Amino acid sequence: MTDLRKKLAEEASQLIQEAETQLPGWAEQRLKKAYHEEEGVAETQIKNILRNLEIAREKNKPICQDTGLITFYIEVGRDLQIDFSIQDALEQAVKDATGELPMRPSIVNPLTRKNTEDNTGQGVPHIEYQPMEGDEIKLTVLIKGGGSENVARQKMFLPDEANEIPGWVVDMVKEAGAKPCPPIYIGLGIGGGLDISAKLAKKALIKEPNTSKGEIGKMENKILKKVNQLEVGPMGLGGNTTALGVSIETASCHTASLPVALNVQCWATRTATTTIEAPK
Q1: Which end of the chain is least crowded, N or C, by CB within 10 Å?
Q2: Element (H, E) at 208
Q3: In a 10 Å sphere around its CB, with 0-12 CB exposed, 13-18 middle and 19+ buried, how is residue 229 labelled?
Q4: CA distance 41 to 229
Q5: Has residue 91 been placed in a domain?
Q6: Domain range spanning residue 134?
Q7: What is the mean pLDDT of each run of 10 residues along the chain (280 residues)?
């Protein structure tokens, strides 16, 4: 085992455990803001979520019993010499984190439903690779539970129907109701193709929402406002906060198409990032 492979596996395992036990600072701040804007049952639900976060952090336990399906986004410096399988190293990281934290085994064969017992399997963890300059590795983990993943949707709009996207998102969130454990985060992938838009929608969930500029930023804010007017509320019990944020990623597409994918994350937006330097 090379030193870099060992370091990648160890730091990836720690990154998973960090994401499983504590939210990004911006996510916790959004929950606290929502708490002050709610009342009654909705306020109680947010209060319980915040208390849950405190306990998870203090006891180093998973935020949610559904410890999810893991996706890695990895950027590898062009100056690095990789003489090992990154896939194998990250699979080992998932196995180690599953045993150490521990995490609930949730990954099964899609047809037989046989559980792999270690949260790895064919194509799991999913890994998105991208080169970058330098001699470091930037690694981001995204963890999603089944409830939020099950309400993902996709639609091939006509090229001139971009103005219909916000309304479609609102309809899909209304249809989902309490299933994705709101308040939710909404990731949208617009453009590319059927497959590309789906990847973009999931990737949108790793960044702080409602931070885009220009027309994309306007659409994010419009969708967030309209979704919260649904009053689905925390855990589907009513209230002002159905969504905590919206993030959009785009790609150029064919002139004859406008693919759009919707991915949803529950309130437990489990993501974390680290930079790994090669051992000297």
Answers
A1: C
A2: none
A3: exposed
A4: 17
A5: yes
A6: 3-21+62-145+270-277
A7: 90 99 98 98 98 98 98 97 96 99 98 98 98 97 98 98 99 98 99 98 98 98 99 98 99 98 98 93
Structure letter (DSSP) for residue 177? T
One domain, residues 167 and 237? yes
Q: CA-to-CA distance for 71 and 142, rounded, in angstroms?
A: 5
131 and 209 both lie in a single domain: no
**CA atoms in the 13 A half-sphere facing the CB of 79:** 6
Task: State both tokens at 207.
Answer: 């960044």
Measured distance CA(112)–CA(91) in Å, rounded: 22
pTM over 0.90: yes
241 three-class SS: coil
CA neighbor of 66 nearest in space, from 148, 125, 141, 123: 148
Specify whether 80 is located in the same domain as 99. yes
Residue 210 DSSP symbol: S
Residues 128 and 241 in one domain: no
